[in-house]
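Many introductory courses stop at the sequence. We go one step further.
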Amino acid sequence: MIWRIALALFLAAAAPIARAGEVLPGPYQARVERVIDGDSLLVRVRIWLGQEVSTIVRIRGVDAPELKGRCAQERTGAEAARRFIEEALTGGDVVLAAIENDKFGGRVIAQVFASGGTDVGAALVSAGLARSYDGGRRAGWC
């Protein structure tokens, strides 16, 4: 019994843990598997030779309307933002940079560049489909 506890403690201590505030500068090549909404993507990224992972990426620095928003105006804006992202990423390949854990867990935040080098978040804001976002309290869309 004691050896099991010792083994569990050893494995827990040896497991790599992402530190708060840790940022991977990138660039990491990724393939878009699905556009979730106007500021989130499911991507498959190559992290090492022969190793790939699928993860949800929230686009750094933007807040887009939510598909399940409170009003019709927000939901319409969310659809427009999602279509914009789908069209901007028609090739399916993106580059991720400045990657860090999201505060809610289960996804990462990253700067996303289309295959032609366009900053996707900046393009969303320029098109009026999203607002700049610094991680604080978000304003409503209705």
